Amino acid sequence: MDFELSTEQKAWQKIVHDFAEKELRPKAREVDEKEEFNWDAARKGGPIGLLGMSIPEEFGGSNVDMISNAIAFEELGWGCGSTALAFTAHNGLGTAPISLYGSSGLKQTWLPLVSSGKNKLGALALTEPGAGSDIQGGVVTKAEKVGNEWVINGAKMWCTNAGIAEYIIALVRTDENKNSKSLSMILIPTDAKGVKIGPAEKKMGLRGSPAHGVTFDNVHVPLDNLVGDVGKGLQQTLATLDAGRISIGAISIGLARAAMEIATNYARERKAFGQAISDFQAIQFKLANMETEIELARTYLYKAAWLKDLGRPYNKEAAIAKLFATEMAERVCYEAIQIHGGYGYSREYEVERMYRDARLMTIGEGTSEIQRLVISRHVLARE
Ligand SMILES: Cc1cc2nc3c(=O)[nH]c(=O)nc-3n(C[C@H](O)[C@H](O)[C@H](O)COP(=O)(O)OP(=O)(O)OC[C@H]3O[C@@H](n4cnc5c(N)ncnc54)[C@H](O)[C@@H]3O)c2cc1C
After folding, report:
1. Alpha-carbon distance 324 to 368, whole Å?
2. Catalytic site residue 335?
3. pLDDT at residue 62 above 50?
4. Average model confidence (pLDDT) across the chain
5. Distance, CA 159 to ligand 1 centroid (Å)?
6. Residues 317, 330, 335, 365: which is the catalytic one?
7. 240 and 96 in contact (C-beta within 8 Å)?
8. Any idea what the CATH number is for the domain that residue 319 is in?
């Protein structure tokens, strides 16, 4: 495997880094404190392709390869965890299922609208109050065919972007059986009658990325709003999550890299016992461990992305990449705070926010336990 990025990928990295440096990092503290989404970032990110990474060009997208997707999310995570999470919930969850499985009518109606940056975004609602990891057995939101419409009833939880979305793709039960063939994806416009979006959850971190509870009370949508096939919802969801896990891993690497850069500068400047703390081997070894972990996480993440780009199976690799990168980001952000001493615990210092932001990454789009489950299944299936 050749790890040299192509000329196009390097150019893309620079575009996204410059964007993150100008539009995300300077506002990252403010969006966290005010618990507000960075709308400017969406307005300006749309035209450079950041809202269309999973959308074909004919529908207004930038349709980047998976390594370029990973490159972008590392830079966005470096700039602002909140905005990066909202962008990945939009690209990987809110638009990818339509690009992959949607009818041409759905693609034409929704994808150009949400990729431009002029409108609201997309969202995907899998999780429910009683079901997160176990969507196959736990989803109870129902969609019934009545005439030429779906009638949807139920409740979803933790839907990132719901309050700033044009539509929500909901995973719903389309027949009574609780097996792998009874789930389907249906696109529900957020302004449809009967859609109620609760207030944004009060979160520990990523506070500029709104996540909401949503209820569907006799919501009617056309049969054509089915995304993909009836009964294929679980399969489509698992495929969507494989790619999403690469993006969450990439955001984690970006958060870790940002925290490490800040900690490195601090270590050079902070004096103790008459010398810079970077002169102490204990601090040098922390930096060495942080660098090692970030490099390993990125290298492996690119492997998972590369396999996807080749059209080869990458379920295990995506799980390993997410597991390692997200747990790595927690360790690196923890050490970044440690290097700052008491100041690291202050909200005046960015590493405090990065530590809070990193914590979600081991939970969203499949917890670390679920990643270990996926990996161990591959191990145990070996001859
Ligand atoms: C900020 C944020 C944003 C989110 N955004 C979205 C979104 O946009 N769309 C969406 O659909 N969801 C979203 N989620 C939900 C997220 O995907 C779920 O929280 C996650 O999948 C875990 O589900 P749960 O919270 O129900 O935990 P549970 O599934 O109840 O798990 C609780 C604990 O049990 C463990 N566990 C469960 N099953 C097993 C098992 N078989 N073996 C071992 N351990 C197990 C879990 O790992 C965890 O530690 C978001 C969550 C947060 C916090």
Report:
1. 9
2. no
3. yes
4. 97
5. 12
6. 365
7. yes
8. 1.20.140.10
